[in-house]
């Protein structure tokens, strides 16, 4: 089907809606809401919380390992089938979990959900937005990704209510979440997307404007082939950057524990819970802000913004532990840094390698980050236990400073690839 310059259509915004729904529903059900089930399910099955929560580790490890395969499928197959299969890999296991009576069954479904999570959380949004838009790419990626936090806030409340309906209310919770996952997302993944705008006779939104401005990101995808990209120094530096981002962002899990250890607050439990909520709000805001800065200034601007927020947030948490509103502001700022894991890294990948084989390249970059993230919570827990919170904060500050250096190095190495992109 030939493309029609200037043709207007609602379809690109159905694509954005699909990205939002995939983050709001399936991703939240699989990841953001997992923690509310740890205690009721482990008590019902008569196992320890750690033994039950192992299914989550299995899910995250599988997520990392299948990314290269899914990246290739996302690049070459009909996205309606790939995305719908990803939704099914989350929704069907959630329904099945409502009937389970042994912990090993959760391990099996955790592995299946890991496949769906790899597609839904890591590949879907950047792939869709990069194919369908040539302007405001950062904003739309950030907007979609922000709904993982919004979904977590909404569905944790829903799940908590369902769990409280009876002795085995967790079964109702899993059943409802599984059905909602399928009902919410499948209509969008089946009917709201196409693999490329050319499939429905369209150009990417903004392609004509960008082409007139003389940019390399016009209608046709331009970039470095995956086989070539993975041999460059830019790829290896970006992979290390992504690994450290995923390690650092998971320190968020210990902010409530840090606040709980403080003696300055009579209402320390409430402050600890609130700092976690502020970090979630910061994460949602940060995803949108990083995207806007990428569009209006540069990806370097987004890098500095995210990292400075991380440094500032940790700094005030460490230096002003007795001032409640400062502690909450620190949690919010660290949440902005957290957002860099799902927004900044795909934008940097796009900037460095282009859009030609984006899914294949980003899936491999994200695999390194996801593997690191799968064990990050355990790493930080061991570190806090061995050296305490103050020294752990210093380690985290050093990591963020290192991320600034690595981010700039990867972008500098990417500039050397621009002539190759022009020829693609």
From TrEMBL:
The domain of life is Bacteria
Q: Which GO terms describe its molecular function?
A: transmembrane transporter activity
The record gives the membrane topology as:
Multi-pass membrane protein
From the record, give the transmembrane residue ranges: 12-38, 50-69, 81-100, 106-125, 137-162, 174-193, 234-256, 268-290, 302-320, 326-349, 361-383, 389-414
Residue ranges constituting the Major facilitator superfamily (MFS) profile domain according to the UniProt record: 1-415
Q: Where in the cell is it found?
A: Cell membrane
**What SUPFAM superfamilies does the database record attribute to this sequence?**
MFS general substrate transporter
Q: Which UniProt keywords apply?
A: Membrane, Transmembrane, Transmembrane helix
Q: Could you name the Gene Ontology cellular component terms for this entry? A: plasma membrane
Spell out the Pfam families in the cross-references: MFS_1
> PANTHER family this protein is in?
MONOCARBOXYLATE MFS PERMEASE (PTHR11360:SF290), MONOCARBOXYLATE TRANSPORTER (PTHR11360)
Q: Indicate what this protein is called per its UniProt record.
A: MFS transporter
Q: Which organism is it from?
A: Adlercreutzia hattorii
